[in-house]
């Protein structure tokens, strides 16, 4: 299998340079020449030797050209038809391919466990520890960096997804850690309860969303790990242990954001809130207005986020508040219909399709093309637009301008339950980097959050980065979990979270590789110019391990300055001495003293 994978990578690497290869040579030496070369003859003259040398070169070149022609695929619009010489053996039936949602990280494993009961999980952890067999905890696989993936083996709790207990009076629920966020919300709404806050999507398993320190938005609302009242952890060395503020508080706070390295989270008790309807207000603003109203926006809104659009002055401001604050839903009539809001993006797509895909236009009637375009959401249409020329800065700017116009015409109000309103359509597959840094206190914001954005936008324009929209900025209160990027001992501290993005709107391997390289250049610029100055640290589900030794060593030292790495590693040694719960990311970021 490894040989097959290496062969495929080699072919893909060569295919990347397909257009630089010379056309195949089809002229072959005649049979008489071949027979002459292979029979015994008197010593050749110098002219004969020269002739034979050049015939040999011609034969070799012909063979290489033919091999190239038949081995590598042509583009979809090539006039030729490729011949398939190579056939890859199918994967064995017991080999599972597991990838994250964006398709940026993937592993193949024969050991993918899904226990059906807590006893099954406990036996699996015990047996695996005795055999020193890896069982890395993995949730829904949504983390952009694939933090839950491990080729040697994984354990997934999707079958442990029950609500075990609801305390309506205390507003608490006890659940199995494999339950998905949306499933949990649906099951507890009959009790009038919901979660305090939500991330952008709802498909995460509760265990996973807690372990990576995920967050929603709202300067008064902490990251989701702060909702944990108690938890049950299945550990390799100490079996099943129960943790809370009262039972081993130091380990409890450490394990709430434990990155899956201290034990498999089996059960969690969460502090919930009353289910309520929210009013979402979306408006287009600009940097000048944001600066003027920023403190007021943070203090007066339960939830608030900004979506910046690179190469424009546009800022989308989204606020959410309980309906009661408005004395009922606001009366508002939109100025534009959904079709009118989509008009600029659709026109741009038609224009670009003519420029980049003229052959497709002739293959389909204009009516059919327009029908397809009109059925797309904005994020789907944005993906299609970017796919036409994703790294052309001028093209990306046009797409961003169309997005700004879409948001201008989408201004208005929306009313719904919190789990419906607080979600956000993040678009298609993507690379993303999100950093968290201090933003002062709730009573006195430092305004460093806006300074960070201004510098980031200037950096993008100076370096001509083909940066698509949006740059997303959210806020949270502090977390008491020491491994959280938003950890603080001061309960009044607030933190800003800023995410940059590059979409992967195509399945073409070469194009995805080029986008990936450009994204990491983009990320490196922010890292080198901004992170240290603003004490910014990446979200655990989005941090990428450097390939270079020097860069990795620098990252390890940097993490030690912010997080209690020694305490975390000490707990790992005590709870998982054989490191069966670990994977490459944990081993690289938090090397133990005995790691080779």
Automatic annotation (TrEMBL):
Show the GO MF annotations.
Answer: D-arabinono-1,4-lactone oxidase activity; FAD binding; galactonolactone dehydrogenase activity
Q: Which residues form the signal peptide?
A: none
- Which segments show compositional bias classed as Low complexity? 29-40
- FAD-binding PCMH-type domain span: 104-275
For whether the record's keyword set contains Oxidoreductase, the answer is yes
Give the PROSITE patterns listed for this entry: FAD_PCMH
What is the protein name stated in its UniProt record?
FAD-binding PCMH-type domain-containing protein
Q: Which organism is it from?
A: Dipteronia sinensis
